[in-house]
Structure formats: structure tokens, C-alpha cells
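Whiteboard transcription, Tuesday session. T.W. wrote the C-alpha cells on the left side:
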């Protein structure tokens, strides 16, 4: 406990899944947390969990696919706590988005320009907007940790979800570029690539792990991961334990990326 004591952390995608797990764990480790997603009721649940465990934080409902939404979030964090030590970029959509946005997880020839731009705005543009606003504060402080959530599909090819996989691949290289640009300013940037994590994002595909033979094709451990298993890796990157970890791409995928 106390690995993030007195640090201020912005966590996007905090309404569910990996983002929620990170916000709750960061708070338990002593950080003051500022959570964001589009849905206020989901954020309220996350904040209630933080408060129940004795943590401190606020939540901001905003659409981070727009510059205005990102500005709203950063302004709220600075107004409340005066600094940002950690930025966890966890906001994004995945296969579950297909249920309400048909065609969004298709191959290139099956994806309209409108759906392509929509997924890219949520999964990639949001990280650009947040980084460009937060990095100046971190540079002024002389330190900061940025953690970008990509995906195992950001480093492996896939027959569908091409907008998603393209955005996640871009996050990997954006992370490396942030490291190269801001390392001497004390700002670190690292990337976490989760595999099949039991979250609402993959709820439409999670049943494939019911079949052991099918599960073995996708993951040597033959199971999905949990949001907490990803959050523990993110705590390391957020903490001072990782001060020489910069530009790293960390796979938390049960060995999925090890498969040919």
C-alpha cells in the first residue's frame, strides 16, 4: 500500500473494465484520482467503490473523442488538485461497440469512412488530446508518468476490426515517440497491451473460452484475464518503482502474443 501516495492520477475509461480497476487500485495505493468516461452513472459506481475503500477522488463525464471533452477533464483535475502526476489513457471501444454501431469492427472493405473515423476518434484521438494537454503540466513539474492502454491486437494482425487494430497499433508507436520527445523533461510514457480481458468490451466474444480447444488457439493459459491483473501492471508503471522504464510495451495477455 502507498505506492502512489499523494500523487494525482487522471484515469480515462474509468466507468468500467480496466479503467475502473486502475482507478480503484490507484486510489488504494494512495493516489488522488480523477476518473472520466461518457456515462455518469458508471462513474458514480466507480467513485463509490473508491470512497468505500477510503480513497479520494472526483469524476468527470466527458466525451474524450473531442478536444472540448478532454479540456473539460484536465481543467477539472487541475482545479481540484493543482497537478497531474499520472495519466492513464484507458478510454476506448472494442468489439462490444459493434452491437450499437454495426460495421464498426469490420475489415477495411466492410467499414464505412464514418465508422472508421468514429473508432479512431475514440480510441486514438482521445489519447492525443489528453497528452497534449497534460504533458505541459508534467514538464513544469519535472516529472510524470503516461500509461497508454493498447491491445494485443496492436502488435498482431487480425482479419477484422481494422479501425480498432489500426488505432491500437498507432498507440504503441505514439508511446515510443512520446518517450523519445519528453524523456529529458522527466515525463515517461509506457504502453500496456492487454489480451483477452473479461470486460464488457469483449463480452460478445468471451464465450469462445468455454471451449478448451478454441481457447488454446488464442491463449496458452486458456482463460481470459481480469481487469485487476492489468491494473497491477499499470500501478508499477505509475509508481516510482519504474523510473527507468520508459517507452516500454508491456504485454499482459496470458501469452497470446507469444503464439505464432
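and on the right, the sequence the group agreed on:
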Amino acid at each position: 500500500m502507498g505506492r502512489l501516495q499523494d500523487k494525482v492520477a487522471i484515469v480515462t475509461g474509468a466507468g468500467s473494465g480496466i479503467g475502473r480497476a486502475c482507478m480503484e487500485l490507484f486510489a488504494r495505493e494512495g493516489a488522488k484520482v480523477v476518473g472520466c468516461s461518457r456515462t455518469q452513472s458508471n462513474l458514480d459506481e466507480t467513485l463509490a467503490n473508491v470512497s468505500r475503500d477510503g480513497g479520494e477522488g472526483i469524476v468527470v463525464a466527458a466525451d474524450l473523442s473531442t478536444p472540448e471533452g478532454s479540456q473539460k477533464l484536465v481543467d477539472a483535475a487541475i482545479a481540484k488538485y493543482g497537478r497531474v502526476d499520472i495519466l492513464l489513457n484507458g478510454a476506448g471501444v472494442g468489439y462490444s461497440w459493434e452491437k450499437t454501431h454495426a460495421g464498426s469492427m469490420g475489415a477495411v472493405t466492410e467499414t464505412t469512412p464514418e465508422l472508421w473515423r468514429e473508432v479512431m476518434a475514440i480510441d486514438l484521438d482521445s489519447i492525443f488530446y489528453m497528452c497534449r494537454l497534460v504533458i505541459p503540466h508534467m514538464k513544469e513539474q519535472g516529472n510524470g508518468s503516461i500509461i497508454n492502454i493498447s491491445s494485443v491486437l496492436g502488435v498482431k494482425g487480425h482479419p477484422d476490426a481494422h479501425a480498432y487494430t489500426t488505432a491500437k497499433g498507432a498507440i504503441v508507436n505514439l508511446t515510443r515517440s512520446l518517450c523519445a520527445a519528453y524523456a529529458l523533461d522527466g515525463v515517461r510514457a509506457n504502453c500496456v497491451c492487454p489480451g483477452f480481458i473479461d470486460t464488457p468490451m469483449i463480452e460478445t466474444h468471451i464465450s469462445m473460452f468455454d471451449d478448451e480447444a478454441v481457447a488454446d488457439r488464442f491463449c496458452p493459459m486458456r482463460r481470459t484475464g481480469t481487469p485487476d491483473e492489468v491494473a497491477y501492471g499499470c500501478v508499477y508503471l505509475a509508481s516510482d518503482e519504474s523510473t527507468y522504464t520508459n517507452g516500454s510495451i508491456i504485454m499482459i495477455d496470458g501469452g497470446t502474443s507469444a503464439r505464432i
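Someone added at the bottom: The longest strand covers residues 187-194.
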